[in-house]
Structures are given as C-alpha cells and as structure tokens.
Amino acid sequence: MRKYALSDLWIRIILFFAICTVLIFSLQSFVLPLIETVFFNGTSLPETLSNNIIRAMNGVVGVGLVYFFLRFDRLQMKAVGLEWDEKKGIEWLLIGIPIAFVALIPTVILELLFGIVTFSGLLDLIGIVLTLFVTVIAIGMGEELLFRGYIQRILQTSYSFQTSAVISAFLFGLLHFSLFAPGGNLFSMVAILFSAFSIGLSLSYTFKITKYNLILPISIHGFWDFFLFVFQAEFVYETLSQALMEILASVAGAGVIFYLVYEYQKRKGPIEETQ
Predict the structure, then answer these.
(1) For the whole model, what pTM was predicted?
(2) Cα separation of 92 and 217, whole Å?
C-alpha cells in the first residue's frame, strides 16, 4: 500500500466510510421492500431470507466499494490482503472454524446467564447452506475488506499498527451502531458499538499475524456469524447490566481469539508477508 499525505488519507477514509454507510442504509431501507413488492407481491419475506438478503447486499457494498477506491489509486485487491495464499490458504480457512467456535463458548455462556441471547433452533438444510455462503463470502469478506483490508491498511501508511487497529475497530463498531442500533434503546446502542469494537480489535490482530492476508480474519469473522445465525440467535439489551455484560462477553470472545491466533502463529512460525 502506497504512503499518502495525511490530508489525502483522511479524505479517503471519511469519504469511504460515509459512502459505505449511506449505501448500506439505502439498500436496507429501499431495495429489500422493492424486492418484496416486485417478486413477492408486497408480502414480507421470511425473516431468515430477508436477513440473508440484507447481509448479502452489505457484502456486495464492501467488495464493490473497496474495488472502486483501489482502482482510483490504480491498485489491486492484493494491496489490501485479498489474495489466496497457495501454501496457507486452505489451512487459514479451516483453522478459522474452531477458533470462532471456541471463542463463542464464553461469549454465549455469559449472554445466556444474563438473558441476552435466545436461540430459536437450527435452520433447515437450505437455510444452513445459504447462511454459510452469506456469512463467509458476504459478511466475512465484505466487512473485512472494508475495515481491516482498506481502512486499517491505509491508516498504517502513516500511523502505527496499534493506532490504526483502534481507529478501524472503532469505525467497525460505529457502522454496526449506526445501522443496527437506531430504534433501540441507549443500552443496545452502547452494547453494539463496544462489542463490535472489541471483536474488531481481535480481527485486526489476526490480520497482522498473517502478515496482512485477509483469509484468516474472513474465516473467523464469517464462522463467528455463521454459528450465531444458523441457530437463529436473537439478542436483547433491556437493562444497563445486560449491555455491560454483552460488552464483557464480547471482550471474552475477543480475548480467546487473540490467544488462539497467537498460539497458532507461535507454533507455525514466521509467515511471509503479502506484497
């Protein structure tokens, strides 16, 4: 990634984040109702299907927007870490599954103890396949391209990894806050913002550990969401204690990701950096 003047860097990030937020909000507000009107005679889609459509649209926005900004600077996707590693690609993709699953254990236990999460049951086979595709390809790839691939990498041309990770994780939380919290109470807004922030930090660390290749962060992110969505998890934050415990639960999950990724890298040894 080339080095930018600070003014050019922040213009890119502000425009990038603003366009991303507007596009995703617009798609969620107008495209889904249009699909229901044109293809389903105005009938509301089943919640699982509508949620997957929304998530797929978010992924398309992520990939498309990063591609557009990179082409403006005459860069390729590999500049932000979207490159298949012939030696480690399959391994990174598969190792993300147990890392996400194990990290969710303390998170879900705390959420269950405080009545934050309920599970409606396992999806049917079609729902499982569709959700797997959407969470890994759309959400995992789209959001990791947006926040780790583009924002973090462009920040690191002028700032340290630590500063870049904190800013990109905060923007990651802010996007979830602005898109999913409106209409909710103050507790849900706080919980969503800081929960996403803590998970974002762990994914930024994972990105660094792989020498800035996105395959492992995409896998962990995608399968984290997959395990929640496939059991139809529903969250509620009605009290301050629930909001605080959700943040603590996410910090616990993020801590497990940090530890497992660190141990994985220590056992595997140095990795050649993606150019």
Answers:
(1) 0.91
(2) 9
